[in-house]
Amino acid sequence: MQGFGRFLTYRVVRMLIALWSVVTVVFVVMRLSGDPVPLLLPPDAPIAEMERLRHEMGLDRPIYVQYGVFINQAVRGDFGRSIHFRTSAMTVVWERVPATLELAFASFLCAIVVAIPAGIISAVRRGSIIDDIVMGVALVGQAAPTFYIGIMLILTCSLWLGLFPTSGRGDWRNLVLPAVTLGAFAMASIARITRSAVLEILRADYIRTARAKGLPEFWTLAKHTMRNAAIPIVTIVGLQLGNLLGGAVVTETIFSWPGIGRLAIQSIYNRDYPVVQSCVFMTAAMFVVVNFLVDVAYGILDPRIRH
Amino acid sequence: MAEWDKDRDNITVDGLARRLRDGRITRRGFLAGAAGLLGSMAAAEGLLARVAGAQTTRKNTLMVGQSSDVSKLDPQMSTTVNDIAITFNLFDNLLTRRRDGKLYPSLATEWKLVNPTTWQFKLRPNVKFHNGDRFTSADVKFSYERSYDPNAKVITKSVLNTIERIETPDAQTVVIVTKKPDPLLAARTAFYAGQIMPKDYFAKVKEDEFNAKPIGTGPVKLASWVKDDRMVLDANANYWGGKLAVNQIIFRPLPELAARVGALLKGEVDIITKIPPDQMDRIAKAPTTKIEGVLYGGLYCLSVTTQKPPLDSKPFRQAMSLALDRETIVKELWRGQAAVPNSLVVKGDSHHDPTLPPLKYDPNQAKQLLKEANYKGEELTLETPIGFMVMDKEMSEVVTAMWKDVGINAKLEQLEYSVYQQKIREKSFKGVRWTDPTSAYNDPDGMMWRHLAPGGPNAYWFRNPRFDELGNGARFSVDEKFRAEAYKEMARLELEFLPLIPVIQPMELYGLQKYVDWKPYANQTMEFRNFNLKITRG
User: Which of B422, B423, B419, B401 lies closest to B410 in space, CA to CA?
Assistant: First the structure.
């Protein structure tokens, strides 16, 4: 257990370093992209007004002092006030978190519930018509652009069949189309990785041994195959969850979903850099946390990794 | 008015695929077309009608789908289309401009010019703000003075800054003294910066809180706002102009065009904005929906931003204008939903000269002028963002092709929107850019002079002593006869030098459920008052 504790501590430290790096990159990139002051004032603003604002924002101080202040505020989750919404930038981003999580987890659930069984069946029945169908659908899911899938789903399921609302956030029925649209890519990747991971294990000697000693096929799969195939599957599942949490600009735009992705893009257009910073930080934080959880899962699934 | 019912060429899958293959439409265009096809198939089977019928049972609520979310509710903090759609309903102005282009009384019941620099407004008695505060002349004085206060963080400072002082002899009278005669003062009170805000409430809550919880005298009041999701406005039961035909108006941002149109066809929303002409038929031909359009109170123009050769040559600029087949642009690209302008004074504005012919297309004369200009094939760059104006990308492609046809070495550059905005601020365009000036006060002063006066947003290089003399004279004259003559001459001068090349005056199209009786305005405000909104469903 001591080994696991050390493993966890190590991962937490790595997570904090990753977050610090993100914050620093955000700081540097925002400074590299030019002076924000002219963007915040009308084009004909007098020089004195620009100087006043520059002083107010602390931009006239040495860069290391600015960095210190920035880190200090970032630790407290304070990235300044939104220029566009005239309120705390982090508050604006927090308002979008529930919608983002709702959509991300719904898509994620859609993806794993469909993709993992599909991948396993496809591997077990390799070369069969089922395998061809599953992999064909997965290929379409990976290749078709999100906006195409989204618009086609609106046309067929919503306008034509009248099953779901066309867009907006509301009850579970509003969630179905965006979740499927967003989950399509993740679904496809997870199914393909599951198939190849399971296939590889099925060829292993210990599987042949298990079959030779007369273990039922179900237990061979459930106990011997899946546990060993889990590492690549957990990796891809973790990565996909991170991606889904990062907000999905296209899906959110098509379905008018009030999530972080759309907010980030709009804020870039509006040059609302406190909100952009908060979005980047929030997305990075969610990604890092998911990665941490994946690492922990590795440790549980394969004790060798702990050392 | 537009010919909605006119039969148009039927689009087929083969046709779309052919156009995609030939590069005549983009992949996106192809998908939109394909979407249109599917939509009409559904319509043919009567499915849409059934679905729509099932969905439109929410009585007393009007759902409006806009192309993006509202950003600010403080009326002096924003002039963007999606925001003014709300603020002109939360607040009232002293005067209001209706669809016929005329000024009507609103919070003021009478107004008159006492002498060339003094205006008097009599205010409507017994009007209350949403919080119960009484509306008085002090609120007018406060709102107007804030709009040009150098210390206030507002973006409307140039609207009412002709005012020298405001007097409030009693609670129902406002006297405005202007620095110089201002023929447009009454018109100014009817537009941006003229919305009346409550003085006492504002003093209590300060600007950020006011922006989040605005209080006005208008027909609706803010109930709730979930950003990027929906804004709920409740009807003001005590509205002085009579209660609205609905209990609630809900604004939803529906940024994706296909989803916006889909939501209308399915009956989830009652009105949608910003419909490009190629989607018009889908809505007009569906059994439950219709199109309403209005000629935009402004123009889509090409702004000549530099005097670098070849743009420094007057005959070259005239050739650029003569090379544009505006009729074809209107007919093919806009499907008839636009007009060919005859000058920089638009149809619908005061002092528009209907005797001028529409701008001419003459490729031979253009070629002749290029020779005269001694044009040696220098590059002419048109810089455009995508989605800044309706069909800007398509029009840019067509315009550069038309220039190439007469021998101009035209090049098209697409810019990301924020880069475009930056270039506007820095005035750093390479050649020609799109601009969509609107005549804010239905008057040439609000467009031709505002944009081309010294320091104006499109006065990149153009200066002409006579033009400046007339522009200044007309701005400070209350003699409408003199102004009419001045603008006639200025319009002619503008067409000679062409700092702005007018291209088209577009129609703005809205999609509506058939049971909604509502008309759009040329100035892009969405007026929801009981004289402009009726619901005819059972």
Answer: B401
Find the range with the poorest average confidence among B79-83, B258-262, B342-346: B79-83
- Label the pairing between strands B248-253 and B61-66: parallel
Q: Give the pLDDT score at B507.
A: 94
Rg of the Cα trace of chain B? 24
Chain B residues interacting with chain A (CB cutoff of 8 angstroms): 31, 35, 38-39, 42, 47-48, 50-51, 54, 68, 71-72, 77, 155, 207-208, 211-212, 226-230, 252-256, 258-259, 262-263, 265-266, 268, 417-418, 422, 425, 455
Instruction: State the residue for tokens 């006869």.
Output: B481
- Are B323 and B402 in contact by the 8 Å Cβ rule? The answer is yes
- A124-153: per-residue pLDDT in tens? 888 899 999 989 988 888 888 888 999 999
Rounded-to-integer distance, Cα B188 and Cα A94, Å = 40
Q: Would the CB atoms of B229 and A155 count as touching at under 8 Å?
A: no
In chain A, which residues have their Cβ closer than 8 Å to the Cβ of B387?
Answer: none
List, in sequence order, every beta strand (DSSP E) within B416-537.
Answer: 432-435, 500-513, 516-518, 533-535
Q: How far apart are CA B11 and CA B25, in angstroms?
A: 13
Those residues whose C-beta lies under 8 Å from the C-beta of residue B177, and which sit 6 or more positions away, are B117, B118, B163, B164, B165, B166, B167
- How high is the ipTM of this complex? 0.76
**CA nearest to A269 within chain B:** B418
Which of B39, B254, B425 is closest, CB to CB, to A38? B425
Amino acid identity, position A307? H
Rounded to 10 deg, the angle between the A172-202 and A226-245 helix axes is 140
Tokens 């659908």 belong to residue: A137
Peptide bond into B181 cis (omega under 30): no
Contact B286, B45 (CB under 8 A): no
Of the candidates A244, A243, A263, the one whose C-alpha atom is nearest the C-alpha of residue A253 is A263
Q: What is the CA radius of gyration of chain A?
A: 24
In the sheet with B163-170, reading across from the earlier edge strand, the strands are: B108-115, B118-123, B173-178, B163-170
Q: What is the tens place of the pLDDT at every residue in B397-449?
A: 999 999 999 999 999 999 877 678 778 877 889 999 999 888 878 999 988 99
Considering only the beta carbons, identify the residue of A160, A168, A268 that sits closest to B418.
Answer: A268
Whether the CB-CB separation of A264 and A280 falls below 8 Å is answered with yes
pLDDT tens sequence across B505-531? 999 999 999 999 999 999 888 999 999
Which segment of A48-62, A125-139, B360-374, B446-460 scores lowest on mean pLDDT? A48-62
Q: How far apart are CA A185 and CA A180, in angstroms?
A: 9
Q: How far apart are CA B320 and CA B399, in angstroms?
A: 9
- The backbone torsions φ and ψ at residue B382, rounded to the nearest 5 degrees and listed phi first, read -105, 120
Helix (H, G, I), strand (E, B) or coil at B534: strand
- The secondary structure element, H or E, covering residue A287 is helix A273-301
H or E element that contains A66:
helix A63-75
Give the DSSP H/E element, type plus range, for residue B441. none
Q: Which residue in B19, B45, B51 sits closest to B32, CA to CA?
A: B19
Distance CA B196, CA B92 (A): 6
What's this model's pTM, rounded to 2 decimal places? 0.81
Q: Residue A122: how many CB atoms within 10 A of its CB?
A: 25
Higher pLDDT, B413 or A296: B413
